[in-house]
Write a structure and sequence with these properties.
two-stranded antiparallel ribbon, 2 strands, Na+/H+ antiporter like fold, mainly alpha, about 70% helix, 21 helices
Length: about 475
C-alpha cells in the first residue's frame, strides 16, 4: 500500500528542533479530547487490535457458515448439532453444545475482557480521571439511549396488544446496548480505513467499559434466583487463583483448577457463568510500574497474550457459529420484521448507539470546555459512534437470556442483531471512508522516526 509523499504529512524540517504545543502556548495533545496518548499505550492498543481483527474475521466466517447451514436443506442437522447434550450427569452439567458455547466458552472471552478492564483502570486511559471521563460518559450514553429507544419502539408498536406480551418484549431492553469490538475491527479491515491511534484507543476503551456495563447488566437483571451457598463457595477458588498469580505461579494446568472450580460454582449459584470469567480477570495483578516500562511485559499482558488467541480464535467464533444460525427462509424474515422486539433492536443499534456515544462525547466537551484533538473532527466521532452499533456476541447472549435460547422471539432478535449490525457497519463505512485520505496523512505523521530510536517523533514531542 502506498502512502502520500511525506512532505504532505510532515511540515517541519527534519533537522530542526520541534516546538512542543505547550511551548507555543497551546493545549498539549494530552489535554485535548481524544488525544494521542503515550507511545506504550499506542503500541499496546495496536498489537491488541491486530489480534482482535483476526478474531473478527473468524467471527464473521463462523456467522456466515452458520447462516448458510441454517438456511440450507440440511438445517435440521445444524439444529441437531447445536442441541446435542453433552456433559457429566453427576455434576448436573448436561448442557447442549449451544449452551456450552454461551456459558463456557464465553467465560474465556469475559476473562480476557476482565484483564483488559483491570489494566485500563490501573495503568491505561481509565487510570486518569480526566481521560476516563470521556469513554465512561460515552459508553454510558451509548448504553442508556439504545435501551430507551428499544423500550419506546416496543411500546409504540405494541399499542393495543397484550400487556403481558409487552412485558415479555421489554425483557430484551439490554440487547442493543453492547458493542462487539472484534466485529467492528473486522469491518475496519474490510473497508481498509486507517484510523488514527487516538480513535483506535478510544474505540478499545469504549468497548472495555461497554463490556463492564454488559456483564453487570447480565449479573443483575438476567439472574432469576441466586443460591448464596454456591456463590460464597466460589470465593474459595477465586482467592486461590489470586494467590497463585500473586506468587507468579502461572502454569496453565495449575491455574485451570481454580478457574474451572470458580466457573462451576458460579454456574451452580444461578448467576450466569460468564460472570466468573470477569471476576477471574479482575483478580489478575496489574503492576503500574511494570506497565509503564516499555521494555517489560507485565503478568497481566502475558496472561492476556496466552488467552487471547483461544478467546478470539476459537471461543467467540464457536459461540457465533451456534448462536447466529437463524432460519431466514420460509417466512422467518417477514415474521422478524413484524416483531416489535426485533425492530427495537435495530433502532437501538443503529440510532441509539450512534446518537448516544456522539452525544456523550459532545456533553463532555461542552461541560469541560475541551476541544477535540487537532487531527480529528466531529465527523470522525460520528463515524466511530456508528461503528459502535456493530453489536454481536454480547447482544446475542443477552437475547438468549431474555427470551430463551431457540424461542421464536430469540430467532427474530438474532436476525435483528445481524441486520442492525450490518446497517451500522455500512453507515460507518460511508462516513469513515470519506476521511480515509486524512487518516493516511495522520498515520504517516504518527510513524515518522527521524532519530531512529524506535519511538515516533510525534510521541516524543508530546510525551
Amino acid at each position: 500500500m502506498t502512502h502520500p509523499p511525506r512532505r504532505d504529512a510532515v511540515a517541519t524540517d527534519p533537522h530542526s528542533t520541534p516546538t512542543s504545543p505547550t511551548a507555543r502556548g497551546e493545549a498539549s495533545n494530552h489535554d485535548r479530547l481524544l488525544g494521542r496518548g503515550s507511545w506504550r499505550e499506542a503500541r499496546y492498543v495496536a498489537d491488541l487490535l491486530r489480534a482482535e481483527t483476526v478474531g473478527g474475521a473468524l467471527l464473521l466466517a463462523a456467522a456466515v457458515a452458520a447462516l448458510v447451514w441454517a438456511n440450507s436443506p440440511w438445517r435440521d442437522a445444524y439444529a441437531g448439532l447445536r442441541d446435542s447434550v453433552v456433559g457429566p450427569h453427576a455434576l448436573h452439567l448436561e448442557l447442549s453444545l449451544g449452551t456450552w458455547a454461551a456459558d463456557g466458552l464465553l467465560a474465556v472471552f469475559f476473562l480476557v475482557a476482565g484483564i483488559e478492564l483491570k489494566r485500563e483502570f490501573v495503568a491505561g486511559d481509565l487510570s486518569d480521571r480526566r481521560k476516563a471521563a470521556l469513554p465512561i460518559a460515552a459508553a454510558a450514553c451509548g448504553v442508556a439511549l439504545p435501551a430507551i429507544l428499544f423500550a419506546v419502539t416496543a411500546i409504540l408498536l405494541s399499542r393495543g396488544g397484550d400487556a403481558n406480551d409487552l412485558g415479555g418484549i421489554l425483557r430484551g431492553w439490554a440487547i442493543p446496548t453492547a458493542t462487539d469490538i472484534a466485529f467492528a475491527l473486522a469491518v475496519l479491515a474490510v473497508i481498509g480505513t486507517h484510523l488514527p491511534s487516538a480513535l483506535r484507543s478510544f474505540l478499545l476503551t469504549l468497548a472495555v467499559v461497554d463490556d463492564l456495563i454488559a456483564i453487570t447488566i447480565i449479573a443483575v437483571f438476567y439472574t432469576e434466583a441466586v443460591n448464596l451457598l454456591w456463590l460464597l463457595a466460589a470465593a474459595v477458588p477465586l482467592v486461590a487463583w489470586r494467590l497463585l498469580l500473586r506468587h507468579k505461579l502461572t502454569n496453565p494446568f495449575l491455574l485451570a483448577v481454580p478457574a474451572l472450580l470458580a466457573w462451576g460454582f458460579v454456574h451452580a449459584s444461578g448467576v450466569h457463568a460468564t460472570v466468573a470469567g470477569v471476576l477471574l480477570g479482575l483478580l489478575v495483578p496489574v503492576n503500574r510500574d511494570v506497565e509503564d516500562d516499555p521494555d517489560l511485559q507485565s503478568l497481566a499482558e502475558r496472561l492476556e497474550h496466552r488467552l487471547r488467541p483461544f478467546s478470539a480464535g476459537f471461543a467467540v467464533p464457536v459461540f457465533a457459529f451456534f448462536a447466529a444460525g437463524v432460519t431466514v427462509v420460509g417466512g422467518g424474515l417477514g415474521a422478524a420484521l413484524r416483531d416489535p422486539a426485533a425492530i427495537g433492536v435495530v433502532v437501538g443499534l443503529v440510532v441509539g448507539k450512534a446518537v448516544g456515544i456522539l452525544g456523550g462525547t459532545w456533553a463532555v466537551a461542552r461541560f469541560t470546555r475541551a476541544e477535540l484533538d487537532e487531527d480529528l473532527s466531529w465527523t470522525d466521532v460520528f463515524g466511530l459512534s456508528l461503528l459502535a452499533g456493530v453489536g454481536f456476541t454480547v447482544s446475542l447472549l443477552v437475547g438468549e437470556l431474555a427470551y430463551g435460547n431457540g424461542s421464536e422471539r430469540d430467532e427474530h432478535v438474532k436476525m435483528a442483531v445481524l441486520g442492525g449490525s450490518l446497517i451500522a457497519a455500512l453507515l460507518a463505512t460511508v462516513v469513515l471512508r470519506l476521511r480515509n485520505r486524512h487518516y493516511r496523512l495522520v498515520e504517516v505523521r504518527e510513524t515518522v522516526d527521524h532519530d531512529r530510536d524506535g519511538v515516533p517523533d510525534v510521541y516524543e514531542r508530546e510525551g
